[in-house]
Design goal:
Largest interface: A-B, 53 and 52 residues
Membrane topology (chains A, B): Multi-pass membrane protein
Shape of chain A: elongated
Radius of gyration of chain A: 33 Å
Keywords (chains A, B): Cell membrane, Glycoprotein, Membrane, Transmembrane, Transmembrane helix
Largest sheet of chain A: 2 strands, antiparallel
Pfam family, one (chains A, B): Anoct_dimer
Subcellular location (chains A, B): Cell membrane; Membrane
Number of domains of chain A: 3
Oligomer: homodimer
Family (chains A, B): Belongs to the anoctamin family.
Distance between the termini of chain A: 24 Å
Chain lengths: 729, 729
């Protein structure tokens, strides 16, 4: 009875107790100790009435064909699907045989675990809500294919042009003998710019004009993806007969009613704390990195020093990853705790608030270190002679020559790959398996003749050992963070879509496997859309435009190069760019106690060293002041951000406006169905007139009951069958 | 019969010819020659079926009260409405007497021409579409009240602080003896900065820190207005029983079908031309202004010269206004012509395309001169010694000292006031009156004993002399352009909302008068929303954020003042700002033939004159090069644009997110109605069970007809009465 009530939702009032007599309850004897199963049998008329409540639709008898408008896009997509055909295991769609296969269930067959057609089957078995998740995941993965293709082309362009890149050529040139200022106080010494040759060459891979194009492309890609999803959702709504379906108002949650009764609605005022903790931890990581670097620099062993950069970067990135993974779990709990404190009224609002909080926390968790590297590393360094110090002893980190883009890349790839491989795939499959094992062992301890029983267990008893279904939130969350990696910093890491694509191809299969074999079959739920996730996607896509604009203009050297080429270069080429970006420093101006202990490290006495900044030389009227070039470059950088942001936003709006939300064939289909309905109605009307003509009027009441009788025949068309008088639910 | 068909829409097929017998046609003898009237009488059952098609709803018998949640906002609004009470003529709402009054019609009573309650009555008389227009206009006007209040406060703040403004004090100070470079070649001479005192003081009225606050306020105001309109629309949809209503698919237009038959779909490829013409004309206006100015400067009469600035500005603004008014009509015709060329498929798409084209053309027509003054005047001037010339003889215009903001103000106020007064009110009322007169005179020429007939004319015959209804497009268009004036350049003209408010108070009355007394009663049309106009509003609000950001940072002197105060000022005050913004020019560097003819105009020999720009002085290494200060100010300006745009957009999104789209009482009401429906349904169900119990089953067919019979009783609740089987239209 409890199950039945929960299925019916809020529509059952006290009057509905009359229906109990319709349900037949069988209590079956379970072979598992402590667990009982109740089998419920609902007769046809009870099911019919529930179908009316839920506005389920019945197919029409009359079938009609709608002409397919085959545009250019569809031709391409059919070509793509032909090319990708080997990737899709052969599944005969819409065949009852297949559906039977899947609903036979918990079978370990891999036949159905395909990218794009799984959602058709999953809807039949899991209900529309999970069906929509797989449909969304399928579309996302499909859309990642062109994105990763273009990303790879951009990366290859970087590889191909690395030898033509004048700034890295200048840095690597053997005749280049620019002496750089020490990177840390006292223990570090002067160094030759040519030692940064490798880094400079590597950063060209990710910092070339093609990345600008790619980040515009990805912003439009995101807009296109949203639009395509809207259309796909519309199509699914139509195909799954959800066009008239509206979300029911939820019950108030039991906890909410309890708390209202207690009149102790404690408000959430502690979320500031949590965000504080996040920043504290992130700051801790920054401190670690500064100290590690200083310590490694301290050892004057030259071989160590060569490996310093790479070691620190990589270990720091890995530590970051571990911290992110641990905090991810912590934040999940924190978000849940905060939402429980808030006591939202309905289950739906509870879920939405929880999702929103979790997303914000996990998003900042995943992206804070990356944002730090992209926008704050190497900005607040100060200058030789007056460096900025944290806690009076730690100098702020500097980036290696060639911008912070390289480090951003390393951090991004390690976080992204690590998060996906470890958290998503290992955890997602490993943990349920482990839990299943524990559950199995536990029940074994209580039972004696386990093996005998095992053979006799009913299917619902074996299923009971599976992990219960915990909702789609973790699955969506993971994909949202991935979407963030794909769009937010794509200007600095064009391979992100490729990694995401590879992950998702595995992910779909693992998810499907998990849902079918590792979890109890979830209660089917209907849903018209993916709810709050769509808004989150939209938000991420919006933020991505701004972040990409800033990455291109501030993290990469794109703007300074442009400014040099068109404003300062004597011959209109990039020759002399490296020299132009380096300022002069007179060694005698070092603060006392800060100068290097090994001034003759390079073998000669250094009087003037160089550092990467736009400042006046020591011999100018205003030594070490910020120079005119700095302001020029800054102005151009900011102008670029404005132009980029507005142009991309405008283009996204145009994409949004050009692609209609409802696919043309679906709107045509709906229109034809309407006409069909009117057609039928008119026929009925005519029939009525004939009857009226043949038989003179016998009173209004007769007429009324007849017309109602007619309607019960009319009401068959597919788009129109919510049976009488329940249609406005 | 034709009228009937057009009312029924697309639902009538060939089968419906059977219905003709239901309609009774009376051909009445008209007293106007050449005009015939047909009176159609449709019996009750035909009307009922049409009501089913149109999903009209019937009120429930059961009434219930929904508790009003009186929040803080509602308290304020009730306070506001109390304060404004004297403004509203006393109309007894929802009283049948009043409705009868209005539907008695074409009466010249002014009782109903009220701001906020007219739409309630207008819906009953004109239909939902026109009702929505008046509702929208009412809300817009209401929302303008706080905006204009704040605008006036900002303006008064400017007035109050004008004497404390250090830059204008410095300019006006008698000891100030800065010699400025000539404003034009040869005929102009050097001038004292102190003569610009008046302009400098005036521009402070519109260029003070409060304007920055005001433009942020107005951006949020626009977001708030959108949200409120969404809510109001939702409420009206509920109150006018449109919740289940969906726009019908239109017929293809007759012109479309004709053209498709001809297979000569000529595409619109000439719109570029038209935009070209716009720019050509605007450019012509600019040229006129340059030449007028030069001519006026040429006359060496000192009194003329003093009046030069104001005369030119005002005459140019008036000429601009006339050009705008003429072009507005031209553009309306051009847009219609272009849309006809495009041959859109349905009437709805025709209307939408026409509106979009007309809006774009009229918008650019109204705002091009203003955009020119705000962003291009005085930017491309060059510098003394190498001015920029158009056509080799006309020097580009400079702004008076104190920024172009003052001129922008004059242009804005003249365009706005002029457009509103002349075009909207004079034309709107005058032209229909004129046309009515012409129509009347024409029909008089053909008739003889007019006076006798006049007395005997039926009401529908007198109505025939009125102007036919031409759609709501001009009314909405006018308001959209006004919304543009209110939001786009509000940073430079805080009084715009006040002017708009004053105009609208008249406008509503004039519109209502026009609709009731000057136009034939339009065919009532249902509409759920204001359609494309909402998107246009949204677009204008988006553009407004960016334009305001640019006005504040580039047109006003806000940013240079800030930069001076925090970066260059020796004592942290504004003292010395004027001197800082002026560069030095050595008179001997004038090009040959360009130097002034009257070098001793000021009574002494000038060697160094000053001009408004950030350039290096003649004695620096790089004379007349753009200076570091210029780049600093530019960078800060651009940074301000980025910060302003993103902060305001974020705040707008938050406003959008915080205010729910559906008012809480409406959603509660809908929820309660659902419960009521379930309640009724359950009672019916129970009744059925009782009958079943008392009488053993006599077969499925009996059961079916009975349940249908029950439903015809159930189907009364207000939210659910589209009678059976038509509900999916």
């Amino acid at each position: 009875m409890h199950l039945k009530r929960s299925l019916l939702g809020s529509n059952l009032d006290s009057q509905s107790d009359a229906n109990i007599c319709f349900l037949m309850l069988y209590v079956t004897q379970s072979k598992i100790p402590g667990v009982g199963f109740v089998k419920i049998h609902a007769p046809w008329n009870v099911l019919c009435r529930e179908a009316e409540f839920m506005k389920l639709k019945i197919p029409t008898k009359k079938r009609y064909e709608v002409k397919q408008s085959r545009g250019f896009v569809e031709k391409i997509s059919s070509l793509v699907s032909k090319v990708l055909d080997p990737l899709h295991p052969h599944v005969e769609d819409h065949q009852p045989k297949n559906i039977k296969h899947l609903s036979h269930t918990f079978s370990r067959e891999k036949q159905h675990l395909v990218i794009t057609s799984f959602f058709v089957l999953s809807r039949k078995y899991f209900g529309e809500k999970i069906g929509l998740y797989f449909a969304w995941l399928g579309l996302y993965t499909q859309m990642l294919i062109p994105a990763s293709l273009v990303g790879v082309i951009v990366f290859l362009y970087g590889c191909a042009t690395v030898d033509d890149n004048i700034p890295s050529m200048e840095i690597c040139h053997p005749r280049n003998n620019i002496t750089m200022c020490p990177l840390c106080d006292r223990v570090c010494s002067y160094w030759k710019l040519s030692t940064a040759c490798g880094t400079a060459r590597a950063s060209h891979l990710f910092d070339n004009p093609a990345t600008v194009f790619f980040s515009i492309f990805m912003a439009l890609w995101a807009a296109m993806f949203m639009e395509h999803w809207k259309r796909r959702q519309m199509r699914l709504n139509y195909e799954w007969d959800l066009t008239g379906f509206e979300d029911e108002e939820d019950h108030p949650r039991a906890e909410y009613e309890f708390r209202v009764m207690q009149k102790s609605m404690s408000k959430d005022q502690k979320s500031q704390h949590k965000i504080g903790v996040t920043f504290a931890i992130v700051f801790g990581v920054i401190l670690y990195r500064i100290s590690t670097k200083a310590a490694l620099h301290m050892s004057s062993n030259p071989t160590t020093r060569n490996n310093v950069q790479l070691t620190v970067k990589t270990t720091a990135a890995i530590i970051n990853l571990v911290v992110i993974l641990i905090l991810d779990e912590v934040y999940g709990a924190v978000a849940r705790w905060l939402t429980v404190l808030e006591v939202p009224k309905t289950d739906k609002s509870f879920e939405e608030r929880l999702i929103f909080k979790t997303f914000i926390l996990k998003f900042f968790n995943a992206f804070t270190p990356i944002i730090y590297i992209a926008f704050f590393r190497g900005r607040l360094v100060g200058r030789p002679g007056s460096y900025l110090y944290v806690f009076e002893s730690y100098r702020m980190e500097e980036c290696a020559h060639g911008g912070c883009l390289m480090e951003l890349c390393i951090q991004l790839s390690i976080t992204m790959l690590g998060k996906q491989l470890i958290q998503n795939n290992l955890f997602e499959i490993g943990v349920p398996k482990l839990k299943k094992l524990i559950r199995y062992i536990r029940s074994k301890q209580g039972a004696f003749q386990e093996e005998e029983r095992q053979k006799k267990l009913q299917r619902y008893e074996t299923d009971h050992f599976l992990e219960p279904f915990a909702g789609l939130t973790p699955e969506y969350m993971e994909m949202m963070i991935q979407f963030g990696f794909v769009t937010l910093f794509v200007a600095s890491f064009p391979l992100a879509p490729l990694f995401a694509l590879l992950n998702n191809i595995i992910e779909i299969r693992l998810d499907a496997k998990k849902f079918v074999t590792e979890l109890r079959r979830p209660v089917a739920a209907r849903a018209k859309d993916i709810g709050i996730w769509y808004n989150i996607l939209k938000g991420v896509a919006k933020v991505a435009v701004i972040i990409n604009a800033f990455v291109i203009s501030f993290t990469s050297d794109f703007i300074p190069r442009m400014v040099y080429q068109y404003m300062y270069s004597p011959d209109g080429t990039m020759h002399g760019f490296v020299n132009h970006t380096l300022s002069y420093f007179n060694v005698s101006h070092f603060q006392d106690g800060k100068e290097t202990m090994d001034p003759l490290h390079l073998g000669y006495r250094v009087e003037i060293c160089r550092y990467k900044d736009y400042r006046e030389p020591p011999w100018s009227d205003t030594p070490y002041e910020i120079s005119k070039e700095f302001w020029t470059v800054l102005a151009v950088r900011l102008a670029f951000v404005i132009v980029f942001q507005n142009v991309v936003m405008l283009m996204s709006d145009i994409v949004d406006w050009l692609i209609p939300d409802i696919p043309k064939d679906i709107s045509l289909q709906i229109h034809k169905e309407k006409i069909l309905l009117v057609d039928l109605f008119m026929k009925e009307e005519q029939g009525k007139i004939h009857i009226l003509e043949s038989r003179p009027s016998t009173g209004g009441k007769e007429n009324c009951s007849r017309s109602n009788n007619n309607n019960s025949t009319v009401a068959h068309p597919r788009s129109g069958l919510h049976t009488n008088s329940t249609k406005s639910f």
